[in-house]
Amino acid sequence: MLDVSPATKIDTVLSKLGTALEAGDIDAAIHLFQADCHWRDLVTFTWNLKTLEGREEIRDMLQSQLAAIKPSGFVQDGKEPASEGGGVTEGWFEFETATARGYGHIRLKDGLIWTLLTTMSELKGHEEPKGMRRPMGAEHGHDRNRRTWKEKREAEASELGYSEQPYVVIIGGGQGGIALGARLRQLGVPTIIIEKNERPGDSWRKRYKSLCLHDPVWYDHLPYIPFPENWPVFTPKDKVGDWLEMYTRVMELNYWGSTTCKSAQYDEAKGEWTVVVNRAGEDVVLRPKQLVLATGMSGKPNVPKIQGQDIFKGEQQHSSQHPGPDAYADKKVVVIGSNNSAHDICAALWEAGADVTMLQRSSTHIVKSDSLMEIGLGDLYSERAVASGMTTRKADLIFASLPYRIMHEFQIPIYDRIREKDADFYAALEKAGFMLDFGDDESGLFMKYLRRGSGYYIDVGACDLVIDGSIKLKSGVDVSHLTENAVVLKDGTELPADLVVYATGYGSMNGWAADLISREVADKVGKCWGLGSNTTKDPGPWEGEQRNMWKPTQQQALWFHGGNLHQSRHYSQYLSLQLKARHVGLETPVYGLQQPHHLA
User: Which keywords are on file for this protein (predicted)?
Assistant: First the structure.
């Protein structure tokens, strides 16, 4: 009897694909793909983060890259069984290139490749020192000049940046910079992390006191050291801060706290940056070959310019500077905005006894935390998923295997289920006057996040206060001006205020490049974040990947790294491998370098 099991189908296609690619037979490879196919490559074939859509885009990439990449050894991963359902067969595979080992995921429709994910796992000859390669630690034998681990670390800390130059400087010591620093440390790339705050984790500690992670713990692990099994599902901000500080020390990162970056200039002739930093009052000049801006995907705080801000006698704060509610009991507060920070701040102010009004200027997507965990994340990131054998790495790769072009098609049914489950909740919110949306195409939170990084709130309780009127709501109208003691809206409404909080989001990360390097470099690189989906706040043309994130940019040796804890963990692997390849002098022919279409 003919074996047509899912594993056999995957084996057959992988064998044909590997044979065609090894032989350089691009036509044979192309005919293994459906007409509406998608190949997402994370570094292995393109030295880029690039999604190829359709046979002609795949053909163009292979014509450019195949001879240099030299792929081989496409074999199904026997430890991960293939599966089938809904007319789709999917499985996992391993492969190699001339310089790297890779891992991938494949989906077949009607025996042809529908989606293909190829990712770089490690560089040959530059593997991380783990497992059988882990360091000994103790140095057995006799040596009168022996130095202890502590002495070596102290020497490294005193020399790097002074008598020895780092290969990479990371500006920003939040979770993104720390995760990337840990990856680079394991790869032996000399790196310094620059952070304006005194201690690792201060970027969390200094936020408003009620802040907790809205993403669950299974989604938030850092590389190498997962959170322990008794870690809370939603981590309070100060606990995150303590974990990051511990992690930085245990992972032996060269972390310069109380240090500000004053300027950075790239010398193309020398192929290096001149980065001037002030470290505890002393100017230090660093000369790295690579510069990473890990200042957070949210970029610079966006504070709107409103007539009357100069005469308002109360306090004005951007949400990133809001200290918490303690000083505002019995005060009148207007919070401009209606996304995550706005809801959190409003709820904490209400708890402290403030008279608080939320000003909602445009519609917001709301999803209840328990519904998001159960329906949106449960199959990949939950205790249920862990019990079924799901690992963090596998969950990350499953999520990465869905090309952004079609991801919304998978998300829409999820949010349809959530909308049905929580119909009474949504009806009550709208009755209270709250303007709801589920994204331009009804695809919900994740697509909003990927497209624009804003426009949503994961409800952990504040919505009940909006529904019952405890948090006053004014929606559908913008600010006209401020007086000495009030916010005046365009419909004439006056909202008395002792404090105005601007929960108005952030600008693009390339704003930091403008400040630290030059406006010319910021414009040369263009806008960071977004997919080019031509939806609200994500203008086209279509990019297919996050603009400028974790990949080469139009400015040589300048990189951007950021996002939530999940993205900091996942994409730090691919950015660190790109940097390591350059550190050891490998050829890295970049395919499909992104063109700038928007400046901010």
Answer: Oxidoreductase
- Phi then psi dihedrals of residue 151, to 5 deg: -65, -40
Q: How do residues 391-414 score in pLDDT, each as one tens digit?
A: 999 999 999 999 999 999 999 999
Residue type, 49: L
Closest by alpha carbon to 592, among 541, 552, 557? 552
* pLDDT per position as a tens digit, 230-266: 999 999 999 999 999 999 999 999 999 999 999 999 9
Alpha-carbon gap, residue 156 to 346, rounded angstroms: 46
Long-range contacts of the stretch 20-24 (C-beta < 8 A, 24+): 21/62, 21/66, 21/71, 21/72, 21/74, 22/71, 22/72, 24/66, 24/67
- For 537, the token pair is 């706040």
**Amino acid found at 543:** E
Radius of gyration of the chain (CA): 25
DSSP of 138-179 = S--S--TT---HHHHHHHHHHHBTTTB--SEEEE--SHHHHH
Return the number of other C-beta atoms located less than 10 Å from residue 147's C-beta.
12
Give CA separation, 121 vs 76, 108, 279, 410, 581, in Å: 15, 23, 36, 27, 13
pLDDT (0 to 100) of residue 1 = 46
Long-range contacts of 54-60 (CB under 8 A, 24+ apart): 55/30, 58/29, 58/30, 58/33, 59/26, 59/30
Q: What is the pTM of this model?
A: 0.95
Using alpha carbons, select from 123, 257, 208 the residue that is nearest to residue 576. Answer: 123
State how far the Cα of 575 lies from the Cα of 567, in Å rounded to an integer.
11
